[in-house]
Amino acid sequence: MTEPKPVPPGRRVPASLTGAEAVVKTLEALGVEVIFGIPGGTILPTYDPLYASKIRHILVRHEQGAGHAAAGYAASSGRVGVCMATSGPGATNLITALADANIDSVPVLAITGQVGAQAIGTDAFQEADIVGATMPLTKHSFLVKEAVDIAPAISAAYHIAHSGRPGPVLVDVTKSAQTARVDWHWPVKMELPGYKPVVKPHAKQVQQAAEVLRQAKRPVILAGGGIIRAGAAAKADLAKVVSRTGAPVVITLMGAGALPDSHPANLGMGGMHGTVPAVAALQNADLIVALGSRFDDRLTGELASFAPHAKLVHADIDPAEIGKNLPVDVPIVGDVGHVLAQLADLVGDWDAKPDWGHWWDYLNGLRASYPAGYDQPSDGRLAPQHVIERLSALAPPDAIFAAGVGQHQMWAQQFLDISGERQLLNSGGLGTMGYAAPAAMGAQVAHPERQVWAVDGDGCFQMTGHELVTCALNSIPVKVALINNSSLGMVRQWQTLFYGQRYSNTDLHTGDDTVMIPDFVKLAEAYGCAALRCSQADQVDQVIAEAMAITDRPVLIDFQVSRDAQVWPMIAGGASNDTIEYARGLAPTFERDEF
Known about the structure:
single chain; 595 residues; alpha/beta; Rossmann fold; six-stranded parallel β-sheet; 36% helix; globular
């Protein structure tokens, strides 16, 4: 994070600025480098001084795109992402992106215009109570009616967004506050009574966690998104803990990259579409050491039958998460980075690693029996898993991937080889279709030197794909791997499995032999992008190489894949994790008796 730059004693930026100028000056002082947004009536006063600011503004095509772009910028860099919109529909269009960032703990600062203070409550043109609307969907929301409160509110919002458990904060500034005059000075006095996030964990609780880990016979470390939010040091300390103890690791979707996929201790993702070894490890463990995980329903399945024999150590910076879904034996409130640093030191003092050979024999047996794999489609179209597998093999090792939501998201998690802690971006908790393209745009802005791919579906892409226009006009060379199965794939899979193949309103007709609406190649070209199409397996490598060679504009590849491809393993929604199927009709048996 860039700390605010203090003004030398006795010096003031010209007395009597407008509130709008104070908005821009405050953002500059906070070190903000880029804003994603769209101007409109009530935020227009702030756009005027922004015209001459050193802050880069990227004009998006829809406010939801601005929010997801800010989140992609933040999730890939660890810095606060900033977005801006006008009142009414401009502000309400941000809500989905803010709710998405909130549940996934992404630091975003949203600034919206509001009607004049005197008009609030009159149903004025483009008036909406955005503070009231977003209060349950953000970490906090501010309404600023006076110009004197602008700098303190924006500074506090920025601080709240990135401190403690990160999250989105909205600052709604009335037009009257933006046009009023105010003396601006820096730094401002920040008063946040009651807001004191616990960062350092209680040492005795971490010691207790180390002790129960030493005594365990079948331990599992559950690596959640909190490790990613804590940064690279936390990832390094997790690797130390794993090396010094020999404990197996299961990752969550948001924890991707906490331990490299190639690490021998990494069993893969747990939960609904997790690997068989990962799910079996959690179900048969006698101890779970959970680090920055919420224990959401996609991980646990039926709560009553989740990990029935396991003690639970739960470390999280948000005390509200501890004990929320599962009873906890050793609660640890604090930043997961600090928890891991202390835990790494404690286990480093052990005389020897515990003997978990029998446990590892069981888990490695499951790895051998149920490896990641897929069937070749019978309809002659591409296997989507093959496409993503080859993309992973050919893209640079430090490439960043932003996944949409649905089947392609699960295949991305399963078949991309992720080694970095901010390399795979996901909409995890909210599951927002339309996330990938604008999030990839934000990540590319944060990392212009790296290759950034959106792995998207044809359904998701049509929700926010117009942001490729933004990318083309702003020289943001994102790449889109469009996994086009001509349907809402995950919904169709559920219809296949649970609704008697009654495909109600899931056909999109985007890659049919007779109908192709839209033609994504023509659409991408109309957006100012390069575009390619691939429908044969022997063309996949060549097409990916062609796309990677294009660096002066965005590029989209329309991969025409089988609509009958399905995501496996799978646990039905709300069912016990014990009911996992490796493939349709093939259910592994967890041999608990041997423990």
